[in-house]
Amino acid sequence: MLRVTGIKIPVTDKVPDLQAALLQKLGILARDLQGFTIYRQSLDARSRQMLYWVYTLDARVKNEGRLLKKHAGDKTVSRAALPVYRPVKPGREKLPHRPVIIGTGPAGLFAGLLLARTGYRPVLLERGADVDTRTRVVARFWQEGLLDPGCNVQFGEGGAGTFSDGKLTTLINDHRCRYVLEELVRCGAPEEILYYYRPHIGTDILRLVVKNMRHEIIRLGGEVHFNAQVSDIATGDNRLQGLVINGTEMLPATVAVLACGHSARDTFNLLVERGVQAGPKPFSIGVRIEHPQELINHAQYKKFAGLEGLGPADYKLAYHSPHGRSAYTFCMCPGGTVVAAASEPGGVVTNGMSTYARDGENANSALLVGVTPEDFGDDHPLAGVEFQRRWERLAFQLGGENYHAPVQLVGDFLAGRPSGQLGKVRPTYRPGVTLQELKKCLPAYVVATLREAITVFDRKVYGFALADAVLTGVETRSSSPVRIWRDDNYEASTGGLYPAGEGAGYAGGIVSAAVDGLKVAEAIISRYRPLD
């Protein structure tokens, strides 16, 4: 096939005629075109006069060699090369027991899927509930403020990403990324995630996808156990021997993928107590900011806002303070909601979520400032966890100790005064909000950096500093505060344990976590021979 880049179609064209544009670009007749597919679609919004969809197309043509010679020197026409995932060769070492996977977030599910597909019949352990039960439990928390520490936005089938925007953008460049997207499509995700420049699934479709992945793992010989928390590990000669489930059941295991997620604080504590090497790592804390989605649409699309097919606008912003701190937006959810994401009693945690349609009235994103182990004031491996906990508990107290979140209007936050009443922007956080001063539940340097950043971001996205925009505190779980050490073979300091994904400190987001799960599964496959 030929890969043709840079095909631009005005967004005002209701039905883009890609074939006509492709024929013109290549200088061929329709009879010479045997078919084409979209490899990538992005939006060029740099011009105020017109917005363009920009396509990269893979085309099957007659006389491909002759066309390549004709377009020699034209960098926009080349031979297409799709990344192909090639399984690793299985090793020869005997596996005494079925491999175990702790956690069913992206890392755990993709590690489990690959191991199941290769004949290893993995056993997946999930401390939370299946996605349907979990959805009901989370809905009750949002409605009534009744937190279940074992099953919530952080714990349960699909991991924390299940209640998010289902964003699939990633900064990593790895051939496994395409494989991850293809597997998601196979399990029910929309096919457009294979080519759209900012792919997302949405929380509603993602719940179906993770359920289908579970069914596929079981069909291939794996097992999935819910409400099964690893409460202890048994070792001998510094190698894994077994896992204690729910404090009572011993499961023999010599190989376990540790994909527990970034909020498994009790698991982190257990590992450190049992001598597994780990350390604190940088992460970020801050707030969620909410604007009317219509405001963001006009700021980004200008006169084209509201045009059918454009969808809700988003943004991605960063600011580097002269004082050395950095602030940035993260996990932007167009047409979404701010959600209660606590996993421990006595703490308020926020996150963002949207459905596939992204049809809510507000846009929200995390507005974060980076923190490092130097900020924690302690070199203990779990110092970052205690740092998170401190601000979450202060937010809980400010909110009224009922999981209501403290909120402040942007205008008041910038002026350093309390908010007396809400404005035109209605907060979407449930079970409720309480007007407070957010400086009471954030470090002073975070508050100062956020104030600087909001003013700068307003020059990039007009209206970002809208006085009535709502800040909701606190967001502390943007990434893991812990990194569990592993060697070049992906094995922890305790042999047989394989840390993986975001919780272990090696990923950030759905795709990168899934890729890391695949890498760990490959390490196991390359060492051990299949059970089947």
Automatic annotation (TrEMBL):
<dbReference type="InterPro" id="IPR028348">
    <property type="entry name" value="FAD-binding_protein"/>
</dbReference>
<dbReference type="Pfam" id="PF21688">
    <property type="entry name" value="FAD-depend_C"/>
</dbReference>
<dbReference type="InterPro" id="IPR036188">
    <property type="entry name" value="FAD/NAD-bd_sf"/>
</dbReference>
<dbReference type="InterPro" id="IPR049516">
    <property type="entry name" value="FAD-depend_C"/>
</dbReference>
<feature type="domain" description="FAD-dependent protein C-terminal">
    <location>
        <begin position="282"/>
        <end position="478"/>
    </location>
</feature>
<protein>
    <recommendedName>
        <fullName>FAD-dependent protein C-terminal domain-containing protein</fullName>
    </recommendedName>
</protein>
